[in-house]
Amino acid sequence: MYAITGNKIFNHPAHDTVIIDGDRIYDVTNLSQLTPNIEVKTFDNAYILPGFWDTHVHVVTTGVMMIYPNLKPATCIDDVLSILSMNLHHEPLIAYGLAPHRLREKRYPTTRELDTVSRTQSIIVIREDLHSCVMNTVARKRLGITSPADVLRGEEFEPIWHKIQSSMGDDIIAQAIKLTCNHAINQGVTTICGLFSNLREYEIYDKLKDDLPIDVIPYVQTIDVESIVKLGLPRIGGCILVDGSISSHTAAMDTPYHDSDTCGVLYFTDDELLQFVRKAAETGLQVAMHAIGERAIRQLLNTYKKVPQHRHRIEHAECITDEQIEQVARHGIVLSMQPAFEGVFHNLYVERLGYSKAMNMNPFRKVFDRNIKVGFGSDSPVTNIDPLFGIKCATHHPNPELSISYDEAILGFTEYPAYACFMETEYGKLAPGYVADITVVDMGMNKILAVIKRGQIVLKQEQPA
After folding, report:
1. Are residues 34 and 131 in the same domain?
2. How many domains does the chain have?
3. What is the pLDDT averaged over residues 338-345?
4. Does residue 252 contact residue 295 with C-beta atoms inside 8 Å?
5. Which of 10, 176, 265, 323 has the fewest CB atoms within 10 Å around its CB?
6. Do 120 and 197 lie in a common domain?
């Protein structure tokens, strides 16, 4: 048994100390009330919080971006080509994180430009939203691409993405999972909802899980309900696509994009979606699916309303309307949202959707006002695992009327994600009997000072003497 003490404890304004016994919280009290025999670890200028969660992490892809080239730092096409040229030891060369809207040229590199890097080795460049790509001629031939378009998105991209994921070796997948979990700890995260692209990724994780430094709540992205039931998992999905993304013009909108005549893509018919969701729900599974545009959110809501309720999740919900918020509240549906999108993609929202619509995206205030349990996350690697940045984005929305308080944002990264995973009786709070997952930050909420996982201090930053 030991205690930690700081300046402030979340949701315990009259106390400054947490007592930990084994892997559980024993009590929340004051330093002055401790018995002399209890060891005390003191954190200066410290705010003690429940351990952070991230409700939406592509586990393998996040780690793979630490192995393969990451194009996020690129500021122009020449930067992209230079990064690729320095990584030709990978075969195939798969590069992630391309952000055409942040490049000087405001476009993707062309197939011809990628051919200048290599005419003998496959090169595949994936946009940071994981919804479109470009590749060189060799890769197009090997993958049998017949489309005349350089940029492949929507239904042309998805088969390529599945081939990339299924072609990775077991050793790369295992390494990626470990890298992601270690990175999460450094960002103050003790639990993630981990999205696995296929059953093989999940099976590799399952062999590693007891040695990982954090809890991973697995969501396997398959519509094969029988396989999930056979594994004994209580949930299915995670990021099964109802539509695409805003940046790739594939999120399904009611009206055309501001900068394109498309309205996006729906990947299921109404009947196909209902058949899958009903089968999963009737076997007792929680369903989690990706829906960004208001047209996709409507299709998913209409489906969820027709099946048994198991806290089904809508992932992202960036364009959710007032009417849809009311339906979510009425039917007990959980939202999984990414506050960092407002900090990273707001200018892109304006470009794609126009100023008026962009200023009403991710309406956190409206959602919290309806007492909807919103689990916050990153969609890593789309944005970084970084709850402190996410909290700042949620509390500083570009539209001030949609901002929430710091306490509400903290709930979105702690208590509400636990609820989303049916774990709210043991996780997400600093209370006696709860699992001792604790994140200690500075009082300005700018820095992670320490992370405690199941009672063990797994990260402790040096503090000034």
Report:
1. no
2. 3
3. 97
4. yes
5. 323
6. no
The range of the structural domain enclosing residue 308 comes to: 54-58+169-420
The verdict on residue 425 lying in a domain is: no
Residues 62 and 176 sit within 8 Å (Cβ to Cβ): yes
**Measured CA distances, 207 to 201, 203, 322, 338 (Å):** 10, 7, 44, 29
Domain at 18, CATH number: 2.30.40.10
Q: In sequence order, what are the residues at sequence separation of 6 or more whose Cβ sits closer than 8 angstroms to the Cβ of residue 286?
A: 234, 235, 236, 310, 311, 312, 313, 422
381 & 240 share domain: yes
Q: Which residues contact 1 (CB under 8 A, 6 or more apart)?
A: 19, 20, 21, 22, 26, 38, 39
- Structure token pair of residue 22: 């084994």
The per-residue pLDDT for range 182-223, each reduced to its tens digit, is: 999 999 999 999 999 999 999 999 999 999 999 999 999 999
Length of the chain: 465
State pLDDT tens for residues 239-291.
999 999 999 999 999 999 999 999 999 999 999 999 999 999 999 999 999 99
Q: Looking at the whole model, is its pTM more than 0.85?
A: yes
**430 falls in which pLDDT band (50, 70, 90)?**
very high
Q: What is the mean pLDDT of the chain?
A: 96
405 and 339 share one domain: yes
Residue 302 contacts residue 268 (beta carbons within 8 Å): no
Q: Domain end: 124, 151, 178, which one? A: 151
CA torsion sign, 172 to 379 to 152 to 80? negative
- Report pLDDT for 461: 85
Q: Which two tokens stand for residue 240?
A: 């099964």
What's the one-letter identity of residue 260?
A: S
Check: CB of residue 365 under 8 Å from CB of residue 325: no
Average of per-residue pLDDT across 157-174: 90
